[in-house]
Amino acid sequence: MQRRPGPPARFPARLPGSDPPAPRPAAAAPAGAAGSAPSALTGLMRARMVQRLAAGGMASAPVLQAMGAVERHRFVDSALGNQAYEDISLPIGLGQTISKPQVVARMCELLLGAEVARAGGLGRVLEIGTGCGYQAAVLSFLAREVYTLERLRGLYDKARDRLRPLRLANVHLLFGDGMPGYAKGAPYAAIIAAAGGDAVPQAWCDQLAVGGRLVAPMALSGGPQMLLVIDKTLHGLEQSVLEPVHFVPLKSGIA
Ligand code: SAH
Fold this sequence. Notes:
Blueprint: H1 39-55, H2 61-69, E1 90-93, E2 96-98, H3 101-112, H4 115-120, E3 122-128, H5 134-140, E4 143-150, H6 153-163, E5 171-175, E6 188-193, H7 202-206, E7 208-218, E8 226-233, E9 236-244
Parallel strand pairs: 3-4, 3-6, 4-5, 6-7
Antiparallel strand pairs: 1-2, 7-8, 8-9
Helix pairs in contact: 1-2
Bound molecules: S-adenosyl-L-homocysteine.
């Protein structure tokens, strides 16, 4: 079933500035909210995750800062909390997964490479596939506004509950099919897909700003799923195919 996304769930409190938000020390939920591990311990685990990302070649300081700030263990079920900072993907329910930290970092770094981002920071970003909301929270540190769409009601509800205590006022969570993009927020400085299809929907390219960048896993011409980067330039679209990846399928409609 195709349906237009409803109005975004907003998380009032921290008002977005006109510039991309400066890295904040922590996107911590109030004490006693989700998760049971002491914050000193999870802080240490997160610092180690960031060290591993840097040792593995991640050189983007804003990305490392953002990933050091978001409490990843709060986005997975508490039984998996102790694995949240390992470099593995984890189940988030309804057959979906949260990407491993290294992949989240890589995609964020690619978005920051958009021409418009290099010129003056990332403006509006559209994420297709909110999942648990983790990547949207990371993006909230890197972009001025984050529009994120999820097609599964169960995951949308969970992401809303997980994002709310973080009070990230620049994250706009939407329930709906991301195939047609989200025209109301367009043009986007960047579009990121967290699920892989076999062709980039035309709407995504249409909704990209000139100087903007799209990053998506795609299995082109029946080949293996690869990370794809599309830059929209004054002269048209420029596509680069990067490394192989393994994302859950991009599906049409809502459920
Ligand atoms: N970035 C996410 C990863 C989510 S997994 C995180 O941090 O958790 C990919 C998600 O994409 C799944 O939740 C899946 O339901 C969603 N998805 C797949 N096709 C979609 C579509 N057409 N529109 C919106 N969401 C979609």
